[in-house]
Each structure stands twice: as C-alpha cells, then as structure tokens.
Design a protein that fits this description.
- The structure is a single chain.
- This protein is α+β, with helices and mostly antiparallel strands and about 700 residues long.
- It has 22 helices and seven strands.
- A hairpin with a 3-residue loop joins strand 5 and strand 6.
- The longest helix is centred in the C-terminal third of the chain and has 136 residues.
Length: about 700
C-alpha cells in the first residue's frame, strides 16, 4: 500500500493546510475549469515556502494514480524535506521528517511494484524507524502494513499477520478509517490464503463498508476483487443446490464483481488494480470456459480459453507499462497452463520458464509453487523425468511452507490474542475519552468567563489602537504615494534598459548556438570519414580465417591508440615460404594509417607479384618503394617518414628461417637443459637517397627453428 497522505501530525500542519486552502480557493476561483491536478500544479508553482510545497506535492501524489507520473512528485518531496531537516528545529523539523518518511515509504511501494523486494523492504523499514521516532502514528501504521504485505508474499504468514494486527491496533487508536479498512482487507486475505473463508469474508465486508463510508474508490474495487475470488472458489458458501450449480452461480457472480471493479479502476486509471482484475477474469474463463455457452463442453472450453488469453495479454501489457513483475509472472503462469492444455508444449515451456525466473527474482513461494507443478507436467510430456522430479520437489517445498499446520495454528492463536487486545484498547479508549470530555467541559466553563472579561477590555484597547493607526496610515499613505510615483518612473527606465540588454544577450546566445551546431556537424563528418578509413585499413589486414590459417596456433594483440593505426602486421605464404612481418610507422592516427597502407601494399607487391623471398631483399625493395612514393631526395627539411619493421621468412619444408629488421631487434630462445637466449640487433631502415648498402645489415642472418 502506498501512503499518499499525512494527517493529524501537529498544529503546524493544520495551519499550513488552512493557509493553503485560502491560497487554492483564490486560484480555483480564476481557473474553475481546470482539473484538480492542474490546480495543484498551479498552486505548487506559486507556493512561497517549502512546507506548502511539501503539502501540495503530497496531494499531487495522492491524486495521481499513474506509476510513471507520481514518482517525479515524490522525488521533489524527498529533496525538499531532506534539505530542510538539517536547518529546521522543533515542530517544523518534525514535519519535514514526516514528509521525508512518507517519500521513503512511497519509494518502497514503487520498488515492490517493480519486483525489487529487498530494496522495498529496506525503504519501508527506514520509513518505519523515522515514524516511530517522531510518533507519526498514521505513517507507522501504513509502514507496518507494507512490511506485512511483503512478508505475506514471501510466505511468512505468521509474522505478516502480526504486522497487520499491529497496524490495525494503531489505526483504531487514532480512528484512522482508511487505515482500518486497509488492515481489515489485508487480514481477510491472510485468512483466505489459509482456507479460513468465513473469517476472510467477514474482514472483506468490514473493509468494504468503511471504504463505502469514506468513498475510497480504489479500495472499493480491491474489496470487490477479493470477494469475487471467494465467489469463484467457494460458491457453496453463497448458494444452495448441487455442487456444479453452486460453482457456476459463484463464478457468474465473481465475473459481475470483477466487472464492477474494472469499471471503477478504469475511471480512476488504477493500472495496478486493472492488472489483478484482468488476471482474475482470465482465471475464471480458463477454469470454467464460457459459462454462457450452449454448445458442447469442448467448444465452451475453447471459447473460455480464447477469452482468458485475451485478458492475460491485457494484464501483461499493463504490467510492462508500469514494470509490475508480479503481474507479469501471474499472467505468464496462466498462459503457460492454457498452452499446456492446448498441447502447445513448446510455447507452454517458454512461458513457464520465464515465469519461474521472475518468481525466483521476487522470492514469492505461491508463484514458484504453481509454475513448478506446471513445469513438472511439461517435463513429463517431453520425457525429461529427472527434471520433472526436480520441479515436483520444489512444488512440495513451496506448498509445505505455505500450508503447514504450524502456520495455521500460530495464525489462529495470534488472531485470538490480538483481537482481545484490540477490544481492550477500544474499551480503554472509550473510558479515557469520557473522562477527558468531563474535564474539558469544566475547563471550558472557567475559560468562558475569563474570555468574556478579556474580550471586553481587549475590544476597547483595540478600538483605540485602530483609531491611532488609521490616522497615521492616512499621513503615511500620502507620503508613500509621492514616493511611489517617483519609483514607478525609475522602474520604467530600468525596465527599458533590461529589455535592451536581454535582446543583446539573446542575439549572442543564438550566434553561439549556431556556431556550436556547425562545429558539431564538422566533427561528425571528420569522425565518420576516419571510421570509414578504419574499415578500409582493417580490410587490408590479414584478419580473415583463410589468411590466419597460414600460421599455426597463434594470437594477435592489435590495440590502436586512435581509430586508425600506424602499426600493422602482415602474413602470406608463397609456395613453401611463409612470410610474417610487424611494423610501426611514424606518426599516429590518420598519418600513421596512410603509412601502414603504403607498407602493406608494397609488401604485397614485393612478395606476391615480384615473388622475392629473401628477408633482406624484401626490406631493401620496401625501402626503395617508400622513398619513391614519398619523393624523398635527401634534402634538408623534407619529411623523414618511414617505419620500424621486423620481417621473418620461414621455409616450411626445411624449417630454415630468415630474418631482417629495421630498428627492431630479434630475440631467439632455445630450450635445452637451461633456457638460453640470444639477441640479433637491427638497424633503422632509413628512407633516404643513399643506397641500402651504406646501412649496417651485417646482422641479417639465417637460423633454423627449434623443434
């Protein structure tokens, strides 16, 4: 249950409500055609202090049923109240604490709707702690109800009932009728789930009567929903006749109650309530078929299944809108059951597995129990008897936890104990009230006499003060009028200056915005071009399966600094010669990428077309090609672009290996008795006009690969 009201907290709240009423009345007089929400939002816009804002936000939350809208108001309520707690004192601080606890409680409701049960439980507990400290009885009762709801859904029936009774006791003490109605409804649901149907109906009717009295449409619909369930499952409680006749009459009456609930829920846009109502209607049509059908049993059953699926899918659609995981799980379980009956085993399995996943996330044993039993049947159909047994064991565990005798005994014992406490509380409250009324009458008689005397003297003094004030006000008004005229002239001048400055600022702002958009467009074009260049560069690298199959088992670590890279690797196989190279070109990003493209292209030309298979000759030819491509003539000041490269040529038949390097050394590791290594140095492959013979290439050598 979501708390959307704080009442009877302190004298301060009453005063704020009265002032807000006057404020809203004046606004509503001018905007009489607007809705209540529009009026509240207008009031919020013109509210001058945070206490009034908190009250209006609270009213907006209460007036808005959509789970997509009211959380925004709740966020504002949390921020304003938490901000003022640190700076306020006394009753005002207590008021802000109450609103802060209210916001926490509302978050708990929202998280529970979305399936985050542990988070919801934490928020309800935080809210309850604050409400007990500041003695906010209404808030405390509501938080207890919410905690009991989660415990009930998790199968902890005894503790849930204890929380519900604690909430009921507080609500009776403070005569909070909405809270009493809610507690009655929740207690009725506990008895319903434990098979105590007479007790359940008694509490449902108590709740319904109070909700009629206070005209709470949402909870009237909820009571209809719960009573409809009793008619559906326990027709013999309400009708006489054969078992079949009672069941049919009960189901028709249940449909009537559910349609009433849906009508109310649609009128107030209660999506959560509609989800439950649609699921319940689907259950009736699924279990009983079309009750008004005059054809054969099979035809009526199929018509009922079609109608049931229609309601279940409506429920899922609404549940997904407000992220209600419990509603989705309930609908999926029912859809899976129908698909199983229609022998659509694959579809039934998909729905059931999805339902079980959500139910495990929620931790609700009732849902886990139902879907586990269905999965057991599905696995049997599929011949997976080990999985069927596992699902049945889960079903038995969940059923035992919900319906064991200890639970029922503890529930009944707790019922008699707490109902006695409630009656005792009622009698105590009645006696205390009578004594207080007599004392109050006596005090009022004394105060009345004192009041007559006080007001007589006060009236005379007041008239004298009014006469003096009126004379001084007349004199002051004349002087103020003269000053006001002068101020008006000054204000008009300042207004014109401000208007001129504002126009200039707006023009400058528009110009800056235009420039910003232009820069963003240029940046996007450049980035798109570079990304396209990356695709071209990747296309020439040997990354395909066929290219990589040339080498034995290996891996490649290629992590460019920018989008495109100045590093590249190369591999190919010409006859029985395997050629592998890695290179680091000068520059990063786009310049380096250009160099890498040149390097790959020249290597392909030298190795594949010219069929050169000597490592030093390959690098010599590569050097000449780069010099020619970059038109480097050795003059001072020209670019010194080039690359550091290490190139390996392996004869795959003889295991002979050739290596040549430019500014990259080669390490050779051989494993005998102990690990030894040797290092072959390389020289820079300088892109200059001098010939390769002038470089020290004496370290180029051949060696055989170790086995």
């Amino acid at each position: 249950m979501i708390i959307k009201d704080v009442k009877k907290l302190s004298i301060k709240i009453f005063i704020k409500k009265f002032l807000l009423f006057i404020f809203q009345f004046s606004i509503l007089f001018c905007y009489a055609q607007q809705s209540k929400t529009d009026s509240l939002e207008l009031s919020l816009k013109y509210a001058k202090n945070d206490t009034t804002r908190c009250y209006i936000l609270n009213e907006l939350i209460a007036n808005e049923s959509s789970d997509k809208v009211w959380p925004n108001y709740n966020k504002q309520l949390e921020l304003i109240s938490s901000r003022n707690i640190a700076t306020s004192k006394g009753e005002l601080r207590k008021l802000y604490y109450a609103y802060f606890a209210l916001a926490l409680n509302n978050y708990g409701y929202l998280y529970n709707q979305q399936g985050y049960v542990s988070k919801a439980y934490s928020y309800f507990n935080k809210s309850l702690t604050i409400q007990r400290v500041i003695k906010d009885k209404i808030g405390e009762a509501s938080s207890l109800t919410n905690l009991g709801m989660i415990l009930r859904q998790q199968g902890n029936i005894t503790e849930a009932l204890e929380y519900y009774y604690k909430s009921l006791k507080i609500n009776i003490e403070i005569d909070n009728k909405p809270g009493i109605a809610t507690s009655y409804n929740n207690i009725g649901y506990i008895y319903d789930s434990q098979g105590e149907y007479d007790k359940a109906l008694e509490y449902y009717n108590k709740s319904l009567n109070i909700n009629y009295e206070i005209n709470d449409k949402s909870f009237i619909a909820n009571c209809y929903l719960n009573i409809a369930y009793l008619y559906k499952s326990q027709g013999a409680m309400f009708f006489k006749g054969s078992k079949e006749d009672c069941a049919k009459k009960g189901q028709l009456m249940a449909i009537n109650f559910l349609n009433k609930a849906i009508e109310i829920q649609n009128s107030i846009n209660d999506l959560t309530g509609l989800i439950s109502s649609y699921n319940s209607l689907g259950d009736i049509y699924n279990s009983s078929g079309n009750l008004l059908c005059d054809s054969s049993f099979e035809i009526c059953k199929k018509q009922g299944q079609v109608k049931a699926l229609e309601y279940y899918f409506k429920s899922i659609s609404l549940s997904e809108q407000i992220q209600n995981k419990l509603g989705i799980a309930n609908s999926l379980s029912s859809i899976a059951e129908i698909k199983y009956q229609q022998n659509l085993i694959s579809e039934a399995y998909d729905c059931a597995v999805r339902c079980l996943k959500i139910s495990n996330e929620l931790g609700y044993p009732e849902n886990i129990m139902d879907v586990s039993l269905l999965l057991k049947k599905i696995y049997e159909k599929q011949g997976k008897y080990d999985k069927a047994l596992c699902s049945y064991e889960i079903y038995v565990q969940m059923k035992d936890s919900l319906l064991n005798q200890e639970n029922r005994k503890a529930t009944l014992k707790k019922q008699f104990q707490i109902e006695y406490e409630i009656l005792a509380t009622k009698d105590s409250i009645t006696n205390v009230t009578k004594i207080k009324e007599e004392q109050l009458k006596h005090q009022q008689a004394i105060k009345q006499q004192q009041t007559y005397t006080f007001w007589g003297v006060s009236g005379f003094v007041l008239m004298l003060i009014i006469a003096i004030i009126s004379y001084r006000a007349f004199k002051t008004k004349k002087r103020a009028n003269r000053l006001l005229e002068q101020k008006n002239i000054e204000i008009n001048q300042q207004k014109e200056e401000i208007s001129t400055q504002r126009d200039e600022i707006e023009a400058q702002r528009d110009k800056v915005t235009e420039q910003k958009e232009h820069i963003e467009e240029i940046h996007k074009e450049v980035t798109d071009s570079i990304n396209y260049a990356k695709r071209i560069q990747e296309a020439v690298l040997p990354i395909s399966d066929s290219a990589r199959s040339i080498l034995p088992e290996h891996f490649i670590l290629f992590k460019p600094k920018d989008i495109v890279s100045g590093d590249f690797y190369f591999t190919t196989k010409i006859n029985n010669w395997l050629i592998v190279a890695v290179a680091d070109c000068t520059g990063h990003g786009v310049p380096g990428a250009f160099m890498s493209m040149l390097g790959i292209s020249f290597l392909n030309e030298i190795v594949q077309k010219q069929e050169i298979n000597k490592s030093n000759q390959i690098l010599n030819h590569l050097r000449k090609e780069i010099i020619n491509a970059l038109q480097q003539k050795g003059t001072q000041g020209e670019q010194k672009d080039g690359m550091d490269i290490s190139l390996l040529v392996v004869n795959t038949e003889t295991n002979e290996c050739q290596w040549a390097g430019a500014n990259n050394p080669l390490y050779i590791a051989r494993k005998f008795i102990k690990l030894e290594s040797e290092k072959l140095k390389s020289e820079k492959l300088k892109v200059e006009t001098q010939s390769i013979e002038n470089n020290d290439l004496s370290n180029f050598k051949n060696f055989e690969l170790d086995e």
